[in-house]
Amino acid sequence: MTRILSEKYRSKVMSAEEAAKLIKNGDTIGFAGFTGSGYPKALPVALAAQIKAAHARGDEFRINVLTGASTAPELDGALAETGGVGMRMPYQSDPSMRNAINNGTSDYHDVHLSHSAAQVRHGFWGEMDFAVIEVTKIKEDGTVVPSSSVGNNNVYMEKAKGIILEVNSWQSEDLEGMHDIYSNKMAPHTEPIPITSAGQRIGSTTYDIDFSRVVAVIETDSADRNTPFKPLDDESKAIASHFIDFLGGEVKAGRIPSSLLPLQSGVGNIANAVLAGLLDAPFDQFVSYTEVIQDGMVDLIDAGKLAVASATAFSLSPTCAEKMNDKASFYRTKIILRPQEVSNHPEVIRRLGVISCNGLLEADIYGNVNSTNVMGTKMMNGIGGSGDFTRNAFISCFVTPSVAKNGDISAIVPMVSHHDHTEHDAMVIITEQGLADCRGLSPKQRAKKIIDNCAHPDYRAQLHDYFDRAAVKGVHTPHLLTEALSWHQRFLDTGSMKIS
Ligand code: 0RQ
């Protein structure tokens, strides 16, 4: 049965190929999609074919791709493979897109997720030609039920000259009621976002779209791309257990209540493992104010431990996505999906006192963090929401294995090769080796703690040696400037950061 219940919207139904023809060389497109959920699945593939055909004819065809965050092979992958993506913004994690960025085929501006919608609204990204948005259903009255992510969709649809909707009948109709759509205004007329608790609703459950700008409606029926999480290993279990012990200590010290403060959890296997660890932890009826709902959070809801979770998107394994589809009428009483401008807004994060927990590539001995650029030069995914949460958190935590690439890379280095989060923002660093609580410590005190508690034993002596030689009298943050990045250079030259 059709999900397009409004007659006027039905008059705009066409194939993805026909809709793709509306898009021209040089266009800027705001796509739906956030961590592999709620992205358009048909139009980008048809557009990629059109770009390839233009290139085969010798014609120029490049588009600018704006999204919520990472998408999937049908969007980032298909478009990047054409070599026709000019600018990409914000977070991405597709291998083809990453290659296009690193080899110079595409440009990439790594914007904080909470800033991306506001920058588009304020015109920093020029005119938006199209918004291509996946939705679950178009109701009789023309209001539109969002799908499994909200991201920047509301703002892209407000700004775009033409709106293309993909109505995906794979998404559960019971998602209706889960969303809370709220748009801010242009500065200087922005208003306080009136959220004072994670579970509070301040907007509407549907998009109210200007129909005069709807140029195409496409019907689809395919699943979100969902990647299974890695099984928990000893390393991720150890990291989770240090984090949970730390939270217990904070409760004991009276700094946070026994139901904790709202938790934010980043993407990836380790973040998911931390959530899994909370299943057996002695905390109850806590809430989450975060950006993605992962399997671990759904399990916590099922166990009755997580009372409510606010986010902007799902990032679920295939099995968990099926469960979400089957039981969306239950989960919509526990989960709120908001625009990413709201889920990641510094104002709300700070007001609620969120405890953040994100992954990193490397941290230095002073607590500066690199989340994005491998060896300071090659883009991994992007800063995503980690900056939004880290700077504004009540307590900001980072979790990582102490080594990468079979031990040849130390996650703790003398100086990070790229800065995403500064020593002023990162409070707690956790590896499988232990936890460094850097609150209230000077750089020199932090260095000792991070080396002793977090670095892998293979690198501890090397790090102490660097610090001891750098810590001459008269400096606040000891460094040997010609040696500070030598660990990275050694890895590039020899394949290992270890001194042979
Ligand atoms: O690569 O799988 O090829 O071996 O990086 O590393 O340890 O599995 O950790 O999945 O948590 O990802 C920072 C990328 C960590 C992620 C990052 C290699 C390592 C492996 C992945 P392989 P792990 P994770 C909310 C928050 C920024 C955005 C963010 C991220 C791969 O957490 O993108 O936090 N964060 N958003 O081998 C070279 C190093 C390395 C390294 C690890 N120092 N040098 N490679 N790796 N450390 C969500 C959103 O914003 C949407």
TrEMBL record:
Listed name of the protein: Acetyl-CoA hydrolase/transferase family protein
GO molecular function: acetate CoA-transferase activity; acetyl-CoA hydrolase activity
Occurrences of domain Acetyl-CoA hydrolase/transferase C-terminal (ranges): 332-466
GO terms for biological process, alphabetical: acetate metabolic process; acetyl-CoA metabolic process
Entries under Pfam families matching the protein: AcetylCoA_hyd_C, AcetylCoA_hydro
InterPro entries for the chain: AcetylCoA_hyd_C, AcetylCoA_hyd_C_sf, ActCoA_hydro, ActCoA_hydro_N, NagB/RpiA_transferase-like, Succinate_CoA_transferase
Coiled-coil annotated residue ranges, if any: none
Binding, CoA: N381, G385, K405
Spans traversing the lipid bilayer: none
Record organism: Propioniciclava tarda
Source lineage: Bacteria, Bacillati, Actinomycetota, Actinomycetes, Propionibacteriales
